[in-house]
Amino acid sequence: MESCTNRERVMEKLVMGRDWAAQLQILLRKPTGLDGPGTADELAVKILRSFTETLSALNSGDVDQIDSGESRQTQATTARRGCRKRSRKTSDSRVNVSASMEDGYGWRKYGQKGILNSKFPRSYYRCTHKHDQCCKATKQVQTIQEDPPMYQTTYFGHHTCKHHKLVASQAISDSHPLQGSHNNLLSFESKSPISSPKLEKPYKEEAQESVVWPDLMPLDVTSGVCSSKLTSFCGLDMDFLVESVDLESCFCFDEMEFL
DNA sequence: TACATTTGACCAAA
DNA sequence: TTTGGTCAAATGTA
């Protein structure tokens, strides 16, 4: 019951943020038009506050639901083949529609299934480092369009494998412009912070993608770690990005849909 | 030889 | 009962 109220608050804040962002966009296109609902600066503050309050609401409310879902899955796991208690993975997922399946991570395919009412089978991937580093990240990839091929990738869990984080963090510290004097930017433009040769190609391919967030992001504002839906940012998981860049200081969206 | 992919079986959730 | 997620043996590839 409380989570329902909390969800309503979250939705309200997100909608407000979207509206203010739209107003800000209009203002930025007409720099002299300051007789609207507020200056660009004021709108930026409102937007930041809206997102901050949303993050706080999520942090205080829905986390329990997410945790209970994961623990259910863990507790009921048995040793028999194929006998894994599965919860329907509706929480902690990020959906990414892209022309490419590349995202800079190492994945290993562990299954493929034909899906009802879908022309194309769904492929199941887990992180390459599942066993050596207990990385629990998985993803499902489904072709949604034949020509040109478009893929809907749904990510579950988050990468805990150290190797990739190291590479990505290095790439960020090498070239991320937001770590300098522009820490309080709210940007709706695509950024290209990755200069590492290893990550350059996946990022370029991901640059054309669109992002859909069907549910709300679980996060921990106080610790600065965001289990974010911003997966498409640079084609990298946001966990380590937010560890390096203050969550409330830098929002950087390419394309987004709130509802 | 080591690692990745394919594929059918198994089983829980709906 | 149906559907979808995962396992693991078989197979492929570098």
UniProtKB/TrEMBL annotation:
Pfam families: WRKY. It comes from the Eukaryota. GO terms for molecular function: DNA-binding transcription factor activity; sequence-specific DNA binding. The keyword Magnesium does not apply. It is found in: Nucleus. SMART domains: WRKY. Keywords: DNA-binding, Nucleus, Transcription, Transcription regulation. Residues 96-159 form the WRKY domain. InterPro entries: WRKY_dom (IPR003657), WRKY_dom_sf (IPR036576), WRKY_plant (IPR044810). Residues 61-98 are annotated as: Disordered. This is WRKY transcription factor 70. It comes from Actinidia chinensis var. chinensis (Chinese soft-hair kiwi).
